Amino acid sequence: MNTLTNPIETWNDAAAAAVEKIMDFPKQPPAIVIAELRLAFTYLEEDFSRNKESESTSLHWAGVGRTAYRYATNTGNSFTPQELIDTLIRKQRDYGHNNILRFGTYGVIVRCHDKIARLEHLILKAAEPQNESIKDNILDVAGYAAIGIMLNHGWFEKELV
């Protein structure tokens, strides 16, 4: 289903549309180092601090999500777009709308930064994580990118079905 041409009626539709925007972001060579993910995130931070939220913010979120996806694939931690959608929906059922809406895009930026910082630390110390796997963290970064897109387009408050 091409969600970008169909109406976004539910939270589930919005999650699928946001993941589609991530997957449609211009293809680039596989991300080799975590620094590429940090750079994509820096573009988002700079855009948000200048403009708050605009169409370019949505594109920068897509860039972060796509870079996370590329990095996951390159490091043997790959996931499918459907796995990302399923994870988003499952976690939304657990957390609900207010968890994200309390601090909006700013809160998602902070949460996404925390996940990237954790990945950087795990990679630097080259040890097995004690709680969440590297794949889980990369998936969370891509998930936060999708949520950022949903917030930017006004889709996040749709009903979850």
Structure overview:
This protein has seven helices and no strands. The model has no long low-confidence stretch (mean pLDDT 88). Helix 1 (11-24) runs antiparallel to helix 4 and helix 2 packs antiparallel against helix 6 (104-125). The chain has 161 residues and is mostly helical.
User: Low-confidence parts lasting 5 or more residues at pLDDT below 50?
Assistant: none
Question: Could you spell the SSE succession in H and E letters?
Answer: HHHHHHH
Shape: globular
Query: Strand percentage, roughly?
Result: under 5%
- Compute the number of structural domains: 1
Residue share in helix: over 70%
Question: How is the main sheet built?
Answer: none
Mean pLDDT: 88
Structural class: mainly alpha
Span between N and C termini? 17 Å
Q: Topology, pairings included?
A:
Blueprint: H1 11-24, H2 34-51, H3 55-74, H4 81-95, H5 97-101, H6 104-125, H7 134-152
Helix pairs in contact: 1-3, 1-4, 1-7, 2-3, 2-6, 3-7, 4-7, 6-7
Features:
161 residues; mainly alpha; 0% strand
Quick synopsis:
The protein is mostly helical and 161 residues long. 70% of the residues lie in helices and 0% in strands. The protein has helices at residues 11-24, 34-51, 55-74, 81-95, 97-101, 104-125, 134-152.
